[in-house]
């Protein structure tokens, strides 16, 4: 694996609770192996639900603790909507990373506004 090719973890579905620790260990091992990002293929997770949200939250927490992060591949729009609903933001593969604008930069200026 080179620096440009992220590690991929295919998540089979549906995932049972007793499988979560093993998947977290897989993410940790991939990150300790030199990957900075683990791409989680969630296309096979099945219908989105709170079990999928719990799994992805635990994988992200594991990745952050190991100094990395996860990115989702092939996420169902319903899963994306559910993740947004519970306040979890994941970068999707092929999507540019969202960043905050630089401090002191205004996105739009109204005429007549005083300069700061």
Q: How would you summarize what this structure contains?
A:
The protein is α/β, with parallel strands linked by helices and 116 residues long. The protein is built from three helices and four strands.
Widest sheet: strand order? 1-2-3-4
Approximate helicity band: 25-40%
Basic shape: globular
Poorly predicted sequence stretches spanning 5 or more consecutive residues? none
**Computed structural class:** alpha/beta
Total DSSP E strands: 4
Which series of helices and strands comes N to C?
Answer: EHEHEHE
Estimated share of beta-strand residues: 5-15%
- Number of contiguous helices: 3
Give the averaged pLDDT, no decimals. Answer: 85
Give me the Rg, rounded.
18 Å
What characterizes the major β-sheet? 4 strands, parallel
Rounded to the nearest angstrom, the distance between the terminal CA atoms is 48 Å
Written account of the structure:
- By secondary structure, the protein is an alpha/beta fold.
- Helices cover 33% and strands 14% of the residues.
- The termini are far apart.
- It has helices at 20-32, 50-65, 77-85, and strands at residues 7-10, 37-41, 69-73, 91-92.
Task: Give a topology summary.
Layout: E1 7-10, H1 20-32, E2 37-41, H2 50-65, E3 69-73, H3 77-85, E4 91-92
Parallel strand pairs: 1-2, 2-3, 3-4
List keywords for this structure.
globular; four-stranded parallel sheet; single chain; 3 helices; 116 residues; alpha/beta
